[in-house]
Amino acid sequence: QVQLVESGGGLVQAGGSLRLSCVASGSSGTILIMGWYRQIAGKQRELVATHSGGNNTAYADSVKGRFTISRDNVPNTVYLQMNGLRPEDTAVYFCRMTTRTWGRLNEYWGQGTQVTVSS
């Protein structure tokens, strides 16, 4: 069974930094994309950053220049280094993984980790 386990969330003052980690286990397919999304209470989940292997990354405009996504393959881990945090970055951050198994695409989500930025 595929599991994504996130860690690293917490409370930080504006201007501070946090590093989120997400470890994926149990997947037998090819990992295509790993990424981070966030959701503010009462709002839709939004993309923060994705990593599709090599140097292929993408970021939401609101985090460009402040957040950096990276990956390790052993174990399958995706990180989100968040610098220059702002109160508007406060949200639950979710890890997402897309894999391909026998030509079929599969999507998995972690349970989420809370990030709170105080002003």
Description:
- 0% of the residues lie in helices and 61% in strands.
- It has strands spanning 3-7, 10-13, 18-25, 30-39, 46-51, 57-59, 67-72, 76-82, 91-101, 104-109, 113-118.
- The strands form 2 sheets. Strands 2, 4, 5, 6, 9, 10 and 11 form a 7-stranded mixed β-sheet that branches. A 4-stranded antiparallel β-sheet has the order 1-3-8-7, with no helix packed on it.
- The protein is mainly β and 119 residues long.
- The mean pLDDT is 95.
Distance between the termini: 40 Å
Q: Quick check: average pLDDT?
A: 95
Shape: globular
Quick one: how many beta strands?
11
Helix/strand/pairing class, anyone?
mainly beta
Uncertain stretches? none
Radius of gyration: 14 Å
How many DSSP helices?
A: 0
Secondary structure: helix percent = under 10%
The arrangement of helices and strands along the chain is: EEEEEEEEEEE
Strand content: over 45%
Largest sheet, in brief, is: 7 strands, mixed
Brief descriptors of the model:
single chain; 119 residues; mainly beta; four-stranded antiparallel beta sheet; 0% helix; globular
What is this entry, summarized?
This protein has 119 residues and is mainly beta.
Helices and strands, with pairings:
Layout: E1 3-7, E2 10-13, E3 18-25, E4 30-39, E5 46-51, E6 57-59, E7 67-72, E8 76-82, E9 91-101, E10 104-109, E11 113-118
Parallel strand pairs: 2-11
Antiparallel strand pairs: 1-3, 3-8, 4-5, 4-9, 5-6, 7-8, 9-10, 9-11
